[in-house]
């Protein structure tokens, strides 16, 4: 996962680039001090805005049509405990009436897995940021709910009952002669690197669409505290301009009464604190302590308005390295004279999975991209037991790797050959780790795979390039980092047209594929040599580990202990995965 000054992308699901970041110069936003080897940043008052947690549990919102608009009431909970049948897909077809909404009478609609109802024709190829066709209303992967709520006015007619990305579970539908009842029984995502929970959470809510056009949204049990709630009929002409210009349909449902409105569009965004700008974070640290950091990582005891616990990175900064396919940009934006190279774009929340030493006892075992899947294997691989803070180290190792990788392509037989979906190695790239960190066989933390050639036209994927558990760097990565010479990079290959054909005895997937041999000379033919070369490149690095607190607060013991644990493991990770060809300090001095 990577977020350059220009483009943000995802490694986690190998998604396409998303919206651009600006190059507005940063400013100081707080007071900086040190505590041992940690940096403490106390933010100025107002930097994070105000949180607005969900507060409608045990209540029902009733929306009564008044022409093309709605009056809203907040009532005591009305709950139909007979959910009806589970919905096998997303489509609902009404048989006993049509439902009036947004100027039409609808015979069908789609129920999104993340808490919304959408009307109109199918969204075609509109997927959510994780490649799923949810059926409801998708929003951008890094969109803040506080801002996304108003942008939904421009989308298809929709009802957001509790729109929260990444939720999953069961939807139920029951049609009666005068109404249709839709119920969600969902959990927030759990167990993964991006998650805030190790186990399922309970979130049960319901929408009743009445024949006369009135709508009820009821909230029985919700552990989630952030979502978008509201009605979004498609508007036209002056009505639309008025609604969007006013943002006047942004209300507090806990206080709204029938005397308010009527509203053409009405919604409320429930959200956590606003994230500070990355360039403001780096400028605050560098201006206070000096331009002595190559990397900065931020950790906090407050949660920000983001659906993912693990943030992207910001960078690379500077342009003093060539031959890696991606020049750095905008050093002045981050208040550096040239030393600073990359940072986490946002602080990681202390109670997110990523900041915890290990899964708690009794945590359910998840899939092969969850650390819980590897607990026993990691215990066997390490004489001292599972490596602590494995999620945090895997994430940090990946993001710092984006200083140099994975941007290059190769010229093979005169043709430009991409090595993956920029800026990550493609799944078919042979990217075996040179110096493993967690397990004996690893694929690069930057993507690709640890492929075994079966010498019969098939290939076994021994390990994929997902950085859970924490993985190291391939020979190609190490060359781009300036830590090994071109002569030390063995030939590798790229598999195209992958077709699954089964699994081997150990459960590893097997594919048929077309193999293309690639050499480091092919990379250099297109990108030029890496400069400075391995004899003159930087070998000593320093990371600032920053604990960020709200104005008037001091860091908790929990926050400093976990941040320091990550700091210590990071130094060891860097030495191990670079084969001790580079060193890492993590100190403010």
Commentary on this structure:
The protein has 589 residues and is of the alpha+beta class. It folds into 2 domains: 2-47 and 275-585, no CATH class; 59-270, no CATH class. It has helices at 145-151, 237-246, 278-289, 375-381, 390-401, 475-480, 520-527, 557-577; strands at residues 2-3, 8-9, 30-35, 38-43, 59-66, 69-76, 85-86, 91-93, 99-101, 104-106, 108-111, 116-118, 158-163, 168-176, 179-187, 203-210, 215-222, 227-232, 266-270, 295-300, 313-314, 342-344, 348-349, 409-412, 415-418, 425-430, 447-453, 458-464, 492-503, 509-518, 540-549, 583-585. Helix 5 (390-401) crosses helix 8 (557-577). The two termini are 29 Å apart. Mean pLDDT is 91; it is low at 3-21 and 237-248.
SSE layout and pairings?
Layout: E1 2-3, E2 8-9, E3 30-35, E4 38-43, E5 59-66, E6 69-76, E7 85-86, E8 91-93, E9 99-101, E10 104-106, E11 108-111, E12 116-118, H1 145-151, E13 158-163, E14 168-176, E15 179-187, E16 203-210, E17 215-222, E18 227-232, H2 237-246, E19 266-270, H3 278-289, E20 295-300, E21 313-314, E22 342-344, E23 348-349, H4 375-381, H5 390-401, E24 409-412, E25 415-418, E26 425-430, E27 447-453, E28 458-464, H6 475-480, E29 492-503, E30 509-518, H7 520-527, E31 540-549, H8 557-577, E32 583-585
């Amino acid at each position: 996962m990577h977020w350059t000054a220009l483009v943000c992308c995802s490694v986690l699901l190998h998604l396409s680039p998303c919206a651009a970041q600006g190059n507005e110069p940063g400013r100081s936003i707080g007071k900086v001090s040190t505590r041992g080897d940690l940096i403490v940043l106390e933010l100025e008052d107002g930097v994070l805005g105000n949180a607005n947690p969900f507060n409608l549990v045990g209540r029902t919102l009733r929306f009564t049509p008044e022409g093309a608009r709605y009056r809203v009431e907040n009532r005591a909970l009305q709950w139909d405990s007979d959910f009806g049948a589970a919905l096998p897909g997303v489509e609902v077809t009404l048989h006993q009436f049509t439902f009036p909404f947004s100027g039409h009478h609808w015979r069908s609609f789609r129920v999104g897995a993340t808490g919304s109802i959408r009307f109109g024709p199918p969204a075609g190829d509109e997927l959510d940021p994780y490649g799923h066709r949810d059926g409801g209303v998708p929003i951008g992967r890094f969109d803040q709910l506080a801002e996304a709520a108003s942008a939904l006015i421009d989308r298809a007619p929709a009802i957001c009952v509790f729109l929260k990305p990444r939720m999953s579970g069961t939807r139920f539908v029951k049609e009666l002669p005068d109404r249709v009842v839709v119920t969600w029984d969902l959990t927030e995502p759990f167990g993964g690197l991006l998650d805030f929970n190790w186990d399922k959470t309970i979130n049960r809510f319901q929408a009743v669409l009445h024949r006369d056009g009135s709508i009820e949204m009821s909230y029985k049990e919700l552990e989630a505290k952030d979502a978008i709630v509201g009605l979004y009929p498609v508007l036209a002409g002056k009505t639309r301009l008025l609604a969007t210009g006013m943002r006047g349909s942004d209300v507090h449902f806990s206080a709204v009464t029938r005397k308010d409105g009527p509203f053409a569009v009405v919604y409320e965004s429930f959200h956590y604190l606003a994230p500070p700008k990355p360039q403001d974070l780096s400028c605050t640290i560098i201006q206070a302590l000096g331009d002595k950091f190559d990397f900065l990582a931020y950790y906090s005891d407050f949660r920000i308005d983001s659906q993912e616990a693990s943030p992207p990175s910001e960078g690379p900064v500077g342009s003093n390295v060539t031959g890696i396919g991606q020049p750095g940009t905008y050093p002045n934006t981050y208040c550096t004279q040239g030393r600073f190279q990359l940072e986490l774009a946002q602080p990681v929340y202390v109670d997110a999975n990523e900041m915890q030493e290990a899964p708690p006892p009794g945590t359910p075992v998840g899939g092969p991209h969850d650390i819980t899947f590897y607990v026993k294997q990691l215990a066997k691989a390490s004489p001292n037991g599972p490596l602590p803070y494995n999620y945090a180290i895997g994430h940090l190792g990946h993001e710092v790797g984006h200083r140099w990788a994975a941007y290059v392509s190769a010229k093979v037989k005169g043709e430009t050959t991409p090595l993956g979906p920029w800026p990550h190695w493609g799944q078919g790239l042979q990217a075996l780790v040179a110096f493993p960190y967690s397990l004996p066989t690893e694929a690069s933390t930057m993507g690709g795979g640890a492929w075994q050639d079966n010498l019969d036209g098939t290939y076994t994927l021994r390990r994929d390039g997902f950085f859970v558990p924490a993985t190291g760097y391939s020979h190609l990565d190490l060359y781009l980092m300036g830590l090994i010479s071109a002569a030390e990079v063995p030939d590798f290959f790229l598999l195209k047209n992958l077709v699954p054909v089964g699994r081997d005895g150990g459960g590893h997937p097997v594919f048929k594929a077309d193999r293309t041999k690639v050499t480091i000379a092919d990379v250099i033919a297109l990108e030029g040599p890496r400069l400075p070369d391995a004899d003159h490149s930087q070998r000593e690095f320093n990371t600032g580990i920053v604990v960020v607190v709200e104005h008037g607060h001091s860091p908790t013991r929990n926050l400093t202990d976990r941040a320091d644990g990550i700091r210590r493991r990071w130094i060891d990770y860097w030495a191990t995965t670079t084969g001790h060809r580079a060193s890492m300090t993590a100190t403010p001095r």
